[in-house]
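Something for you to look into today, if you have time. Just paste the record in under my message, thanks.
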Amino acid sequence: MKLAQRVTHMAGHGSDGWEIYYAARDLRAAGVQVINLTIGEHDVSTDPAILGAMYESARAGNTGYTIGAGKPVLRRAIAERVEARTGVRTRPENVIVTPGGQAALFAAHMVTLDAGCRGLYCDPYYATYPATIRATGATDVAVPTLPENGFQPEPDAIASLADNARTLLINTPNNPTGVVYSRATLEGIARVVLDRDLWLISDEVYDTQIWSGEHLSPRTLPGMADRTIVIGSLSKSHAMTGSRIGWLVAPEEIVSAVADLATNTTYGIPGFIMDAGLFALGLGSDFEVRIGAPFRRRRQIALDAFAGSNKFRLVPSGGAMFVMLDVRATGLSGFDFASRLLEAERIAVMPGESFGSAAAGHVRIAMTVSDDAFRDALTRLLAFAETLTVTA
C-alpha cells in the first residue's frame, strides 16, 4: 500500500532539525533536570479569567457545530482590533476565525497555490513553513537572508526567485531571529509583490511583542491591502497556545475560499473557544502588555549578559519570545554547539540550522523560563562557549 504523493511531498526528506528538542524532552522524561530554552511556550498558563469565560460558555451550551467563518461578534471584534492597530479599513467580511495561526497559514496557501507553481518564504523560517507550502502540491522556495544584514530580506533576492511564484510568506517579528522588519525592507518587499503579481502572506502572530522599533503590517502600504493575507492568533498575545484560536484577514474572495475549505476540513471552531477569544480581546492592550512583559525583561537580561563578549554576538532582536546567538567563533555549527551544551550543561537551545541554512552557526534561545533561571542559563552558556573558543 502506498501513501498519497501529496503526503510524501509535504514531508520532504531528511532530518527535521529538531533532534535537540527531542533529546531534551527525553532527558526530562527520564527525570534529568534540563533548562529548556527550545520552544516558544509561555512560562505562565492561560489567565484564569479567560478560562472562566470558556467554562461558562461551555456550561451555557455553546458546544455544538459552528460551521462558517466564525461568530459574527468575534469577527467584528477582530476587524475592529486590526483596523485600530493598522489604520486600514477592515470589515468582518475580511476576517475568518481559524483553529490557530497554523491552520490560517495552511488555508492561505491552499487557496492561493496550485501544484507546479512556487511558494516563496524567507530563510531562516518557522519550522512548518516549507511543509505547509508543499502540502498544496507546490514547490517551496527559500529566499536566503544574511546575518550581516540583520536577516532583513532583500528585494533583489526575492525577485530573483519569483519566476513561476504565486505567493511570498514573511514573518515579522520573526521566529526564529526576533528581528523586526524595517519599513524600508517592507516597502522593498511590497514593490516586488506588486511587480511580480504575488500574494503576500504576512505571519504577524508576534505583533504585540515589540521591544525595539515598531511593527508595520505590509497591508498598510500603498496597493497592498488587496493582495495581502495577514495571519493572526491569540496564542502569543494572550498565552492561549492550547486553545487553538487564530484568524486570517484578507480580501473577501480569499475569506470566502477559506470558508469553503474550512467546511470540508475543520468544520469550524468550538463556540466556547470563540467566546473565550472574544472575552480575551476585551481585556484590552494592558493585558497584552502584561503577557509580553517577561520577554521584554528577558531580552534585556540577554543583552546585558552578552554585552561584554567580544566573540559572541546577539542578532539584533526587536520582538517575539526569542533571541538568536551567533556562535560561529567557536568553530562549531549551531547543531554541534547545541548538542555539546545540552550534554555538558543540560541547557537546551535550538540550532539555527533547524530553521534553514541562513542561520547556520547560530542558536535560537527561547526566553521562556523565569528571569532568574534565564539569567543563570545565559551565564552558564556564555562560560561554556568561551571554553569552546579555546579548545575548538
In short: The first strand starts at residue 35 and ends at 37. Residues 5-45+286-391 form a domain with the Aspartate Aminotransferase, domain 1 fold (CATH 3.90.1150.10). The mean pLDDT is 95.
